[in-house]
Every structure is written in C-alpha cells, then in structure tokens.
C-alpha cells in the first residue's frame, strides 16, 4: 500500500474494490441470509457517513498520517469498508420498500465520488505531496500523474457501480409499480 511505497492509484484501487465490489456483495449475502444491520432503514444517513469518512480520510494531512502510521491506515480501510457495507445494506433495504430513498442515496454518493475523482484529475499540483515526503525519490510530475490516474479510476469505476445499482433498483421499482396497477383488460363481448 502507500506506506510501503505504493502509489495513490494502488491505494484508490483497494478502496474501490473494498467499497464498490466487496461491500455490495457482502450486503447482498447478508440480505439473502436475512441479516439486518443496525441502521438499515437509513440509506441517506449511511451515504452521509460514507461521504464524510471519504472526505476526512482523503484530506492531505489524514492521508499522510495513514501512510506513516500502520494503525491509522488500518483504521482508514476498516472504517471506509464498514461505512460502505452499511451504505449498500441500507440502499438494498430501501430498494425493497421506498425505492426513491435508495435512488437518492445512490445518486448523491455517486455524484460526490465523481467530484472527488474530478478534483484529483484536475488539480494543478499534487494534493498529497506531504504524504509522499518519505518517498523522496518520486518527482512532483510523477505524483501528479499518479494522482490523475487515481482520479480517473474513481471517475470510471465509482459511477459505473452506482449507475448499475440505480438501474437495478429502478427496474425492480417499476416492476412492482406495474404489478400493483390494476389495468383494465380488453372489453369482453356481451
């Protein structure tokens, strides 16, 4: 990982894998086994918590702390994964009832992740130079290119996950609405 000389792109790939692949799959498994996590009825609260943790842990000072303190790096990964697990579990639970809440949480979270990715891509200078201070061999141009690659990874992978989930939730919602409607059949001859 980063504290072992890895790149920001590697770090982002680990987060995306944990938060956008492992967490939704784990949430699906929990739901199939009828395990209900605390807060499963609050997808917007789960989204806000997840976004707050993303913002806090990706402040340059916090990322530098995590890079230099293995316990902080472990806390970062664990807290982000648990927040993502709660988010996906709550989004799935809401999709079975008030689907609009699930869709709103997916939309807000996906958009903010896109904004973070865009910030990494469009920043004119490396945002995490202090985090790489102990890795003096990496030139600033290399740090910027790595940051931009990490941002592009976020811009591609994160929205795909949330858009796919939104399509599934919407399709299920429309299917329920369609089944609930009592459509009059064709007029029968008398």
From TrEMBL:
Membrane topology annotation: Multi-pass membrane protein
UniProt keyword Membrane, yes or no: yes
Transmembrane parts of this sequence: 12-30, 42-59, 71-91, 103-130, 150-174
Protein species of origin: Chelatococcus caeni
Domain of life: Bacteria
Protein name according to UniProt: Putative membrane protein
Cellular component terms (Gene Ontology): plasma membrane
Pfam families in the cross-refs: Caa3_CtaG
């Amino acid at each position: 990982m980063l504290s072992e000389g890895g790149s920001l792109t590697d770090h982002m790939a680990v987060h995306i894998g944990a938060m956008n692949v492992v967490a939704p799959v784990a949430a699906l498994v929990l739901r199939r086994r009828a395990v209900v996590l605390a807060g499963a009825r609050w997808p917007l609260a789960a989204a806000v918590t997840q976004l707050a943790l993303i913002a806090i842990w990706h402040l340059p000072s916090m990322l530098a702390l995590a890079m230099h303190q293995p316990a902080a790096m472990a806390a970062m990964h664990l807290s982000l994964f648990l927040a993502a697990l709660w988010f996906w579990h709550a989004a799935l639970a809401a999709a079975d009832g008030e689907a609009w809440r699930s869709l709103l949480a997916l939309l807000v979270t996906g958009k903010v992740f896109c904004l973070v990715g865009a910030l990494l891509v469009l920043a004119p200078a490396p945002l995490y130079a202090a985090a790489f201070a102990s890795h003096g061999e990496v030139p600033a141009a290399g740090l910027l290119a790595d940051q931009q690659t990490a941002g592009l990874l976020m811009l591609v992978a994160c929205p795909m996950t949330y858009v796919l989930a939104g399509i599934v939730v919407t399709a299920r919602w429309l299917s329920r609405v369609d089944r609930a409607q009592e459509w009059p059949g064709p007029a029968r001859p008398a």
